[in-house]
Amino acid sequence: MMILISYDVQTTSGNGAKRLRHIAKECQNYGQRVQFSVFECVLEPAQWAILKNKLESIIDQETDSLRYYYLGSNWNRKIEHIGSKKPRDYYAPIIV
């Protein structure tokens, strides 16, 4: 399933910059950055449960926010891309 994750982290006080880096790193481990604070993640339900738990343990719920958009398994018909940063082909083979 495709999940779009967006976040806003307050960085002007406390350890906000550290939380911001940790959120971005966790999202990069599971998906592709499509905007500065927006990631597309194609995940199995178990992976999603792990990532969601990690993200929610990092943020400060008093000052930060996370938004999840569930695009489901048929997500490729719900996304239109125009401009630079060509989208990743999630079905292409990965060569290591």
User: What is the helix content?
Assistant: 25-40%
Give the radius of gyration.
14 Å
Q: The CATH topology of the domain at 16-73 is what?
A: Alpha-Beta Plaits
Order of helices and strands: EHEEHE
What ranges have pLDDT less than 50 throughout 5 or more consecutive residues?
none
CATH C-level category of the domain at 16-73: Alpha Beta
Shape: globular
- Give the amount of beta strand, in percent: 25-35%
Q: How does CATH name the architecture of the domain at 16-73?
A: 2-Layer Sandwich
Estimated structural class: alpha+beta
Structural topology:
Layout: E1 2-8, H1 16-30, E2 32-35, E3 38-42, H2 45-58, E4 65-72
Task: Describe this structure as you would to a colleague.
The protein is of the alpha+beta class. It has two helices and four strands. A four-stranded antiparallel sheet has the order 2-3-1-4, covered by helices on one side.
